[in-house]
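About this split. The held-out portion is used to measure sequence recovery: a designer receives only the structure tokens and must propose an amino acid at every position. Recovery is the fraction of positions where the proposal matches the reference. Here is one held-out target exactly as it appears in the evaluation file.
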């Protein structure tokens, strides 16, 4: 049975705007790019649960007249959803079995962007994707199907390169075959309800970091298998810091985060 990975992000990799205008510190600038994956071996149950929830919302007059829900093609997206819908979906996520969330926090540091990513938002994006995949693709003899939410300029060639780079070297384990990626696809979030779960978990962490509102993150804390704060060089070594079940992420442990203006 394959493991399924569904990957989405929150924020953007942009440092410069039109005519190379530096956006850092300006209104609307996003100081973080969060990239997350949902890992599950029980995709069918998760997909069915999200679809059933959406159908129930659309059938309920208490919710289906909310403007965001009433829009054609509505699907669950934490940033745009009404607070009442959002709270109900968080309640469902607390009950769903068989999934884990991995997240890489990318602090947008201009010096790192210039030195490591060659002033390229695409390089920054796919560097985070590589680190996320490296953390997920480690089970020997395991097949993985990986779905990446369509955003901006992500493309299949760079996606494939990030996956190849993240896979362990061939023959690393003497008594077992390495992980195998059986499928790669760049997909629309509106057509893959599993991505709504990743989106909500990213939103919960972002809200905790930016607004110090921890309740959504804490409600799902046992679902966050790994959080890597990759550029927290002020408090930890250059490779960042890894949080997990035995050392849960808190904003008090991390270096202060830049907040949006």
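Reference sequence for scoring:
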């Amino acid at each position: 049975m394959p493991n399924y990975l569904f990957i989405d992000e929150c924020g953007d990799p942009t440092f410069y705007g039109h005519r190379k205008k530096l956006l850092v510190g300006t209104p609307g600038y996003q100081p973080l790019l969060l990239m997350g994956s949902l890992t599950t071996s029980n995709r069918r149950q998760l997909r069915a649960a999200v679809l059933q929830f959406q159908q129930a919302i659309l059938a309920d007059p208490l919710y289906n007249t909310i403007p965001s829900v009433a829009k054609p093609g509505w699907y669950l997206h934490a940033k745009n959803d009404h607070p009442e819908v959002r709270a109900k979906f968080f309640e469902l996520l607390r009950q769903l079995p068989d999934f884990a969330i991995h997240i890489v926090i990318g602090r947008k540091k201009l010096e790192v962007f210039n030195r490591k990513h060659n002033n390229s938002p695409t390089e920054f994006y796919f560097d985070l994707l590589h680190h996320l995949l490296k953390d997920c693709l480690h089970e020997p003899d395991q097949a993985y199907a990986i779905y990446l939410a369509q955003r901006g300029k992500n493309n299949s060639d760079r996606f494939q390169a990030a996956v190849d780079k993240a896979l362990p070297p061939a023959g690393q384990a003497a008594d077992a075959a390495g992980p195998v990626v059986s499928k790669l696809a760049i997909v629309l979030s509106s057509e893959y309800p599993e991505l709504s779960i990743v989106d909500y978990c990213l939103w919960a962490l972002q809200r905790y970091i930016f607004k110090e509102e921890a309740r959504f993150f804490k409600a799902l804390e046992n679902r966050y298998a790994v959080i890597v704060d990759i550029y927290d060089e002020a408090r930890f070594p250059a490779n960042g810091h890894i949080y997990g079940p035995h050392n849960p992420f808190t904003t008090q442990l991390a270096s202060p985060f830049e907040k949006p203006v």
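Annotator remark: The chain has a mean pLDDT of 90.
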